[in-house]
Design brief:
The chain has 481 residues and is α/β, with parallel strands linked by helices. It has three domains: 200 residues, Isopropylmalate Dehydrogenase; 126 residues, Isopropylmalate Dehydrogenase (3-Layer(aba) Sandwich), CATH 3.40.718.10; 102 residues, Alpha-Beta Plaits (2-Layer Sandwich). Helices cover 32% and strands 22% of the residues. It is built from 13 helices and 18 strands. Helix 9 packs antiparallel against helix 10. Bound molecules: NADP nicotinamide-adenine-dinucleotide phosphate. NADP nicotinamide-adenine-dinucleotide phosphate binds next to loops.
């Protein structure tokens, strides 16, 4: 019987991409798995064709069909639209989790050599500040929205624990900035603490992200799996790559319910592109992660072992300092291929089956509450008045309404009614109006009439309802509230 080949979408990418991709594909082919690559385009060449997303429709069709992508790095050239082709791919196929494993590798000397580091960052991949929703509030004040959803937190936390169980890991840390961002980062912490008891074999601990960075520099061996929000994960995972030898050795997987995209953490490294000197290890290890994902665990393990054996044998890549004659990209790949089937003398492979995710649902995710109420409104106003002058003006505008001016803040500092200390003022004020009767549930007509009144004397640009859900504040407090 003729064996059906597993189709995968292959995007060689930009810069060093085609060189490291050729190396990775040769290694995969030599491992004996039966795959059929569909070579597709994305990135610089696509932007140059005037396609603003950086991903042509043929590539999208291929991914919809194959569901699995091995991808080289993609540049986002300045001057062509404003989207990153990587972000397009992650959001288009909702690869909501980014797994970035790093481990100590033989012969790759770092200040942490000997501590046997073996850490996986599980980074939320589609929410947070990376939704890219930004506004100029005034000509001199910019704002970005940090969007964190309950469903997004549940998905990433469950994946982190499921992965930990599947891969025989012992602990999961959840790293957040929940002490400052109580509603957004706090949502990940609370979700983590709710879900953790369902995984009694895994030690679960919350850690503040700044302390986590400190601990990673001081005592990284204490970490196993770290789950975190998008931006924190972006930064932490580059840090952990650095702990174990750098970008040339760091693989990653972008996992979604339907589609998974495997790629090196590094970019297109244009300074070394076309010279056959790039280290292909990161993409070779990403390809191994891909094989595990498609159920080819044996080949994945063989490739991981062959990389270890290659490094143990003294083969060195161009990004490892201090070697007079490092191996070229093609030579490195050939060495890995020649070591397929051999076992490392120092390190075992973690053999495990990829986590199966529930299918993507088209339902709109919502959290049910029994009661909800709008108790006030924050109006963001552009003004160069002093706080007292602005407060007086707004108070006058409130005459005869159901609102009172509760507080004015400037860059988070309360400046009205009592300015605590001298702060540098900018022309963006947040003015908090509360219903005079605390029990009132404010309706849109009252809020719209408030905005009309304010608009007669002030320039407002942004409004937020202050909502209570089941009696809990759905907003951060000002110093006076
Ligand atoms: P980079 O491409 O990762 O390169 C930074 C430096 O790291 C390189 O100059 C090179 O250092 C070294 N390096 C990276 N990968 C290497 C490898 N495999 N072998 C040997 N050395 C390697 O980061 P960047 O310069 O900031 O970004 C360049 C472009 O890549 C940008 O357009 C960026 O947007 C894009 N990018 C894409 C992705 C992605 O597609 N996922 C990720 C990151 C960046 P030396 O100078 O020491 O040779």
């Amino acid at each position: 019987m003729l064996l059906q080949k597993r189709k995968i979408t292959v995007i060689p990418g930009d810069g060093i991409g085609p060189e490291v991709m050729a190396a990775a594909l040769e290694v995969v082919a030599a491992s004996g798995v039966s795959i059929e690559p569909e070579i597709c385009e994305a990135g610089a060449k696509t932007f140059a064709r005037g396609i603003e997303s950086g991903v042509p429709s043929e590539t999208v069709e291929s991914i919809e069909n194959t569901k699995v992508v091995l991808k080289g790095p993609l540049e986002t050239p300045i001057g062509y639209g404003n989207k990153s082709a990587n972000v397009t791919l992650r959001t288009l196929f909702e690869t909501f989790a980014n797994l970035r494993p790093v481990r100590e590798l033989p012969g790759v000397h770092t200040p942490f050599t000997g501590r046997n580091l073996d850490i996986v960052i599980v980074r939320e991949n589609v929410e947070d500040l990376y939704t890219g929703i930004e506004y100029m509030q005034t000509p001199g004040v910019a704002q970005a929205l940090k969007i964190i959803s309950r469903t997004g937190c549940e998905k990433i936390v469950e994946l982190a624990f499921e992965f930990a169980v599947a891969a025989g890991r012992k602990s999961v840390h959840c790293a957040t900035k929940a002490n400052i961002l109580k509603l957004t980062e706090g949502m990940l912490q609370h979700t983590f603490e709710e879900i953790a008891p369902s995984y009694p074999t895994i030690k679960a601990r919350h850690i503040l992200i700044d302390n986590c960075a400190h601990q990673l520099a001081m005592r990284p061996e204490q970490f196993d799996v770290i789950v975190t929000t998008n931006m924190n994960g972006d930064i932490l995972s580059d840090l952990t790559s650095g702990l174990t030898g750098g970008l040339g050795f760091a693989p990653s997987a972008n996992i979604g319910s339907d589609v998974a995209i495997f790629e090196a953490v590094h970019g297109s490294a244009p300074d070394i592109a076309g010279k056959n000197v790039a280290n292909p290890t990161a993409l070779i290890l990403s390809a191994a992660m891909m094989l595990r994902h498609i159920g080819e665990g044996k080949a994945a393990g063989d490739i991981e072992q062959a990389v270890l054996v290659t490094l143990e044998s003294g083969v060195r890549s161009g990004d490892m300092p201090g070697y007079a004659k490092p191996y070229k990209t093609t030579e490195f790949a050939a060495a890995v291929i020649s070591n397929l089937g051999k076992l490392s003398g120092t390190k075992a492979t973690r053999d495990f089956e990829a986590v199966k995710l529930p299918p993507r649902t088209t339902e709109v995710a919502a959290v049910d509450v029994a009661t909800r109420k709008v108790t006030g409104v924050d109006v963001f106003i552009e003004s160069t008045l002093q706080p007292q002058e602005l407060g007086d003006e707004l108070t006058a505008a409130l005459d005869g309404t159901t609102f009172l001016l509760h507080a004015i803040t400037n860059r988070g500092n309360t400046v009205y009614p009592v300015g605590e200390r001298a702060v540098t003022l900018v022309d963006q004020y947040r003015c908090r109006f509360m219903a005079k009767d605390r029990g009132t549930d404010l309706g849109d007509p009252e809020i719209l009439s408030l905005l009309t009144r304010i608009g007669e004397s002030s320039r407002w640009m942004h409004v937020e309802k202050l909502q209570l859900f089941d009696g809990e504040d759905g907003f951060s407090r000002t110093a006076k509230s």
